[in-house]
Amino acid sequence: MSEDQPLVLKTSDNGVTTLTLNQPERRNSLSMAMLEALSAELHDIVEDAETRVVVLAAQGNVFCAGHDLREIREKFDDADFQLALFDQCSKVMQQIVDLSKPVIARVAGVATAAGCQLVASCDLAVAADTARFATPGVNIGLFCSTPMVALSRNVSRKQAMEMLLTGEMISATRAEEIGLVNRAVDEQVLDDTVYRMARTIADKSGHTLKIGKEAFYRQLEMPLADAYAFTSRVMAENLQAHDAQEGICAFLDKRKPEWHDR
């Protein structure tokens, strides 16, 4: 990649914005620069009314190899940089979760360590059946503690611990079985599958998607009774929105709704 090429490419089409990690020669590793570039793009999308769905993709045959170990080695004696790096990575993962628009990971190739964390942080994930996943930090003496946060919120405890303790690669098919990705598909239909899913979601009310995504993650951390009380309030408030009333009327009138995103 030439120096004037951005680390993250951005394209938009019919409400779907694709962010593509663009440093294949470095295995799309999450250097500080890459994390800052991705963070800036996610920040801009917050205010982008045209974007309803985000697809996170990558150039080359590695989706993301995790943190840039060369950069980390260069900063072995800089504890402040190390903490800043992991804090910045955590910020990006939380930006994805907090973003009001759904984020779909399009995974072709390998996603390891913080790259696996990136996949797990997305709301949805579709992988080519040739993709592979791992949290291999234990193999190099640096346990995947921050990737563990996202991983353990996607798969069962024992499946997460097996990946974290063995550091072994798992196939896309296995990733689908344990819930790390939604679908593992033939590489030839990966884009068709991802963008068909994205367009289906983009056809919904943006206001409703925002309400639903925020409520989903908030209720996950609540006790059962609190979750029901919270979501009852969310639904009652949602019902007062224009798009909810328009959607109900359109359904009863057997017509297509006209969303105003409010």
From TrEMBL:
GO terms for biological process: fatty acid metabolic process. It holds the Pfam family ECH_1. InterPro entries: ClpP/crotonase-like_dom_sf (IPR029045), Enoyl-CoA_hydra/iso (IPR001753), Enoyl-CoA_hydra_C (IPR014748), Mitochondrial_ECH-domain (IPR052377). Keywords: Fatty acid metabolism, Lipid metabolism, Lyase, Transit peptide. One of its GO terms (molecular function) is hydro-lyase activity. The keyword Repeat does not apply. The keyword Lipid metabolism applies. May play a role in fatty acid biosynthesis and insulin sensitivity. PANTHER family: ENOYL-COA HYDRATASE DOMAIN-CONTAINING PROTEIN 3, MITOCHONDRIAL, PTHR43602. Belongs to the enoyl-CoA hydratase/isomerase family. This is Enoyl-CoA hydratase domain-containing protein 3, mitochondrial. The lineage of its organism: Bacteria, Pseudomonadati, Pseudomonadota, Gammaproteobacteria, Pseudomonadales.
